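Handout, section B. The chain below has 295 residues.
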Amino acid sequence: MFATSTSPSPRLAARFGHDAFVVRSDAPLVEDQMRRAAPSIFAEGKHSSRSERYTYIPTIDVLRGLRQEGFEPFMVAQSKSRIEGKTAFTKHMIRMRHAGQALGGGARTEANEIILINSHDGASAYQMLAGVFRFVCCNGLVVGEMSNDIRIPHKGNVQHEVIEGAFRVLDDFGVVQEHTEAMKALALQPAEEMAFATAALALRFGERAVEEGGGHVPAPVTAAQLTEARRMEDVGHSLWATFQRVQENVIRGGQPGRSAQGRRVQTRPVGSIDRGVSLNRALWTLAEEMRKLKA
């Protein structure tokens, strides 16, 4: 499914669910690649709904400033809009790595990433989050509440504050690495794995659990399905391995299941930027709570 070239050509350039487009590359993305997938990064002005107090600075200018500080983009995504003319201003996400975190190889299995979210239509302030990218499955995690969640409104010197925020998130990665290693060293019992997957199932499909004729609409898949491994590297009973299997199955979908009416279906990937980030952070927090309980 994915190319393994380390050239600037993208690993994945496709529609991401129903609400976003995404492109990720083995090598830092060039601006032409980003423009094709996420043109709102290059918006030449703010949306007409924004007031005079709204400070407009193109995301690409901020990104160029971050590049001068050693940050490179490896993934971009952009939301769509049904409102005519608004897609050029919608929410977009950029996942970046600092120098020294750029490529996999050797014993390295993950890279730390800084996630930048912004829009030019008022849907988002500049937001900076910590993330972890797994080379084996091209999967991007979002760290939960243990890391800074930096939000910078569109006022004043936005570019300087975003760059400063990126270094604040970078400082959190020591703690992120420490907790990641603790999850890898912690073994779960089968019942604990199922408890984790059951909680994740509720996070993903809880909105379907509404009263209907005195009962609840079932989720299309079971908790046991969320623990299924997609590759040999994810087989194991550590908290980290369980977390990775569940997270990928929740976010990427593609699992066979049944609709509320009993029809055969496949679970859909999470396409919305907001929903993807919130689910990722909730799953990380769930893993953190499991780690604390087991410790």
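Note. Residues 1-18, 209-214 have pLDDT under 50 and may be disordered. Compare this with the example in section A.
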